[in-house]
Design brief:
The structure holds three protein chains of three kinds. Chain A is 35% helix and 9% strand. By secondary structure, chain A is of the alpha+beta class. Chain A has a two-stranded antiparallel ribbon with strand order 2-3. Chain B contains 15 helices and 17 strands. Helices cover 39% and strands 20% of the residues of chain B. The chains are: A alpha+beta, B alpha+beta, C alpha/beta.
């Protein structure tokens, strides 16, 4: 499955990354090289194979409903690039 | 119920609606972290490192949230899936700290179910539930504190949600309204969600499409996000359906898109078109192994299920003789139903229901009180009805007594005793009053005898007035007639 | 006095107990080494003041006779582990000056056992790379370099190089596709990636959550056993952590390997494989045989597909795990006129090329219309690879393979830079182990003609690290590998 420039742009946007226009072509080629290599997987018939999601075959452990965290807004905010009035601040979002 | 049809000069249309409802789970801590679910006054107060999406942080599932979800699933008459899985839904937004929401995708915890709705004409309809899954809530973006910035508060981030998806079974706005009221009622009975749409603890996405009346086609649907009251949901359906009809009848096509309902205009407007649609890239959450429940666990939750509104309603009709209307009004709210059961114990249930729905609700309304805050206790309301039944006071006096009860919170017996309101049933005492009035009003007596028989009412009224309302009205009636006709 | 920084952890512990030197002296000796040997570029953040404080507390405990299992042992910590109040960057610009307000469970376990932290170690950015060249702090130089500067392997390049150059007594690493074992092999160290679920992932910056595991890199097998015992254990904060007791691995080292069945997977004998590595592989098998083990050819039929499956699954998970680096709550931000612009500017400038490449691949394989063809397919292949091992372990106790098909290569190597796949191919012997969640150890087996170390890998059954340690110890004893 080869991809085109439009797909590179779409994937870049979904990833919130910029691929400069002059680099799209080379990005696409590299992308296709890797995908072609991955396509090797299609040699295998996996029709009756269950996907493996969790290797150690555990089921989910549950936590008790107790308050064990929070009340530490200084620590939550200490690394914020921009913080105002105890909020994280970002450029105005218009939706 | 009569059909809901949009009729224009060009034709008839029917509307197809499905709902997705996000319900905040009642729990102490968040679904994947140990931070409190309270929304305090201070931003970012109840936020754990997990909720803030800090590097290296991992989710752990809250046992109680699973319990609440299973309980809700049972309340929706739905299949509980013993195997379910968490997935990541990937998208970027300022109030989604990890860049993905942990939700359930391929294998939700609750499968198909149904809810019976009560329509205004007394009929019922079953609405299918497609599925229900559990997930985490996002934080909040605050846009109105600064002209140039948005602020992010993560207190809500990570609060547990149940997302209930219905089948596209609604054919009228009224049905969607009835569904939301019934769902809210069930959730409150179960105490799994407080169901407050105006506070956002229950949020509704509405999917609307239309088709020519009587056809089976499926046309493009539009989704309206976060419509936050029952009234608005109904309004949104009505107006969005009209918009579709208009577009189709003018030869246009509906584009699949997400729209926003504007409560001030009642109209919907585009939020994002499909070309900008998200690609959520769902995949199984590698930080959480599959959730596996066993029969014994599900059975134990079944054992603690409370009687739900439909069952309660049926019981009130069959065992207590309530009308269907009264029963459904009383059963919509569990606190009301509980209050009613307490009040009616050992008394005339139908009369208690009348009092509850009439004077009692009017009193709460007037005083802007919830039933929990009522100055009139359930026992006292029951006892008041009992005083009427036993002819200790008349219905009219009872209204005065009730008024005092709602001022003072006193028992009706105490009020009746203290104010001497006990009804007079002594024939000679009433006779004396009637005789006195007849003697003092010869003109009216004469007129009566000449055929103005409706003057009897005047004599009754005067007698009641003189007795300060305490005379037994039936006895007064009889005595007045006896004496005038003599 | 002889150079105390050359001691193994076990030797140092013994010296500390015998009061031959103090924890403070040991820590200061390592600090001297780090300050003198800047060429390796192993430490990206130094926490010497904290280290001295920790050492003096260790000395107090030794004085009072209440010492802890790792008391006073100076360690280096891969910069992927969040360390409370010590800058943690994953060697990415995007994290900037991130100071975690929390401690990872693994490093906390080490601290509880009295370890001293000298600082944070260089690595490939977000652990994505096999040469430590993707770090925003520049490459690490392999201490075994001769005329040309060589890579230390990756992604735990700083961890292996620091141990090899005696800049710390031992270090922590993480391994998603070979990131402990490959650098250990390239730098002549010993490293173990335990069974998935053995070490808590809490507080370790995630690369690919279903594959990531922490483990130690040390000078020898015994040190790995000692360190793993401290690092491993159940942690309720990690839902994939396994609730089973941690054995005293050290107690297994000298146990007899008589009767142990060692599997040699025929699919690992690649066409045109380097003759030296084949010879060392045979030699390793001979050594184990001499100890009474049975050596047996086994088959892992789906080996060929492991790399491709890995390079779908790991980037997919990474693309999601790295979405949180958005410039809002922590790390560097590059402003923009809209939220999307802020994201794009922040992430485009903050991430390096290899990370961006993997995020894009991962995003693509998960996107609508491709999920089944790539992601789901890879998960199915993962099942086949997992089952291969489970079948093989019905007839053997451990599996012996080379760690890497090559030795350390020069920094800036043209062939590796030209095509990312060439770099990915170096993981050919290691990724299957992560896909199957198995434990595997790499230890040095000998030198190439150019004098560079080769590593040998021993793969074990799930939660059977002790058998690996037994075999590895025997191999180590009879190999006589000379460290720097």
């Amino acid at each position: 499955m080869a991809i085109d420039n439009q797909t590179v742009k779409k994937v870049a946007f979904l990833s919130r990354l910029r691929v400069e226009d002059e680099k799209i072509e080379s990005a696409k080629d590299e992308f296709n090289k890797i995908l072609q290599w991955i396509d090797e997987l299609n040699e295998l018939n996996t029709d009756n194979v269950e996907p493996l999601i969790s290797v150690n075959e555990q089921t989910l452990r549950l936590r008790e409903d107790e308050i064990t965290a929070g009340n530490n807004k200084d620590e939550i905010l200490q690394n914020a690039p921009m913080e105002e009035f105890d909020y994280f601040a970002v450029p105005k979002v218009v939706e | 119920m009569s059909e809901y049809v949009i009729e224009t000069a060009k034709g008839k249309w029917e509307v197809i609606v499905g709902l997705e409802i996000h319900c905040q789970i009642i729990s102490k801590s968040k679904i994947f972290s140990g931070a409190s679910t309270e929304f305090g006054d201070n931003p970012n107060e109840n936020v754990s490192f997990v909720d803030a999406g800090m590097p290296g942080m991992l989710p752990t599932l809250n046992r109680w949230c699973v319990h609440q979800a299973v309980k809700t699933g049972l309340g929706l008459n739905a299949k509980i899936n013993k195997y379910s899985e968490f997935s990541r839904k990937n998208y970027f937004y300022a109030d989604l700290p990890s860049g993905y929401q942990i939700t359930q995708f391929r294998y939700p915890i609750v499968g198909e179910g149904k809810i019976r709705i009560d329509l205004p004409d007394g009929s019922n309809k079953d609405i299918g539930i497609e599925r229900m899954h559990i997930e985490q809530d996002a934080g909040k973006s605050i846009h109105d504190l600064s002209p140039t910035k948005s602020y992010i508060d993560l207190n809500r981030a990570g609060v547990g949600l149940m997302e209930i998806v219905t089948k596209p079974d609604f054919r009228a706005p009224e049905e969607a309204g009835a569904f939301l009221r019934k769902l809210r009622s069930i959730l409150r009975y179960l105490e799994t969600c407080d169901g407050n749409m105006d506070e956002g603890s229950m949020r509704c996405d509405v999917n609307v499409s239309v088709r020519p009346y009587g056809s089976n086609e499926l046309r493009t649907r539009c989704e309206m996000k976060n419509v936050n009251s029952v009234k608005f949901v109904m309004q949104a359906i009505e107006n969005e359906a009209k918009r579709h009809v208009e577009v189709y009848e003018n030869g246009g096509d509906i584009i699949q898109e997400t729209r926003q309902f504007d409560p001030t205009t009642g109209q919907t407007k585009v939020m994002r078109k499909k070309e900008f649609a998200h690609d959520y890239r769902y995949f199984p959450e590698p930080d959480l192994p599959p959730l596996v429940l066993d029969d014994a666990y599900i059975e134990s939750i079944k054992q603690e299920m409370v009687e739900l509104p439909d069952a309660k309603k049926t019981r009130f009709i069959n065992e207590l003789g309530l009308t269907a209307y009264d029963a459904s009004v009383i059963c919509e709210n569990k606190e009301v139903a509980d209050f009613f059961e307490k009040a009616s114990a050992g008394h005339d249930a139908k009369k208690v229901a009348n009092w509850l729905i009439g004077d009692f609700f009017a009193m709460l309304n007037k005083r802007k009180l919830s039933i929990k805050e009522s100055p009139v206790s359930a026992e006292n309301l029951g006892n008041l009805v009992e005083l009427i039944s036993k002819s200790v006071i008349s219905g009219k006096i009872a209204k005065d007594v009730f008024e005092i009860m709602s001022e003072t919170g006193d028992s009706p017996e105490k009020i009746v005793e203290e104010k001497g309101l006990r009804q007079v049933t002594d024939v000679s005492a009433i006779e004396a009053i009637v005789d006195k009035i007849i003697a003092e009003n010869p003109d009216n007596v004469a007129a009566y005898k000449k055929g103005k028989t409706n003057l009897a009412g005047w004599f009754v009224g005067q007698t009641m007035k003189m007795s300060q309302g305490k005379a037994n009205p039936a006895m007064v009636n009889e005595l007045v007639k006896q004496k005038l006709d003599k | 006095m002889k150079d105390i920084t050359k001691l193994t952890v076990a030797q140092a512990l013994s010296g500390l107990k015998k009061k031959e030197f103090s924890a403070t002296e040991l820590t200061e000796a390592y600090i001297d080494n780090i300050e003198q040997n800047t060429k390796v570029n192993a430490f990206v953040t130094k926490s010497f003041e904290i280290a001295k404080q920790q050492a003096s507390e260790a000395d107090k405990r030794y004085a009072s006779g209440n010492s802890l299992p790792l008391d006073g042992i100076p360690l280096g910590i891969k910069d992927l582990f969040c360390t409370k109040n010590i800058r943690t960057t994953a060697c990415s610009k995007i994290l900037g000056e991130f100071i975690p307000p929390y401690e990872s469970t693994v490093t906390n376990n080490l601290l509880q056992d009295g370890a001293v932290f000298l600082g944070k170690l260089n690595m490939d950015e977000f652990a994505m790379g096999g040469s430590n060249e993707t770090s925003c702090f520049g490459p690490v130089v392999n201490p075994w370099s001769k005329d040309k500067d060589l890579v230390p392997g990756g992604s735990s390049g700083g961890s292996a190089a620091a141990v090899s150059a005696h800049l710390c007594a031992a270090s922590t690493g993480t391994d998603t596709g070979g990131s402990i074992r490959e650098p250990a092999a390239f730098c002549g160290c010993t490293g173990i990636k335990p069974t998935y679920g053995r070490c808590s992932r809490y507080g370790i910056i995630a690369f690919a959550s279903s594959l990531d595991q922490a483990g130690p890199i040390a000078q020898d097998v015994r040190d790995c056993a000692v360190l793993l015992k401290s690092m491993a254990g159940f942690d309720a904060k990690d839902s994939t952590s396994y609730d089973t007791p941690v054995p005293d691995y050290e107690s297994f080292l000298e146990q007899d390997i008589n009767g142990m069945v060692v599997g040699i997977p025929k699919e690992y004998r690649l066409d045109g494989m380097n003759k030296e590595i084949v010879a060392y592989w045979d030699k390793a098998a001979e050594i184990l045989k001499s100890g009474g083990a049975k050596v047996k050819e086994i088959s892992l039929p789906h080996t060929k597909y492991a790399l491709a499956a890995y390079y779908v699954l790991a980037p997919a998970e990474a693309s999601s795990n790295l979405a949180r680096y958005d410039g809002i709550r922590f790390g560097n931000r590059k402003n923009g006129n809209s939220l999307d612009e802020l994201y794009i500017n922040t992430r485009t400038e903050g991430f390096g090329n290899e990370v961006k490449r993997r995020i894009m691949i991962g995003t693509y394989v998960l996107s609508a219309g491709y999920y089944d063809a790539y992601y789901l397919k890879a998960q199915k292949v993962r099942r086949l690879i997992h089952d291969d091992f489970m079948n093989a372990f019905k007839e053997c106790d451990v599996i012996l393979t080379p760690t890497s098909p090559i030795t350390a290569f020069p920094i800036g190597d043209e062939k590796m830079l030209q095509n990312p796949i060439n770099m990915y191919l170096n993981d050919v012997f290691t990724v299957s182990v992560n896909l199957a969640g198995l434990p595997a150890l790499s230890l040095p087996i000998g030198l190439s003609a150019e004098g560079l170390p080769y590593g040998m890998q021993i793969i074990g059954k799930p939660f059977d690290e002790q058998t690996i340690f037994k075999a590895a110890y025997k191999l180590e004893q009879d190999t006589g590998f000379e460290r720097i």
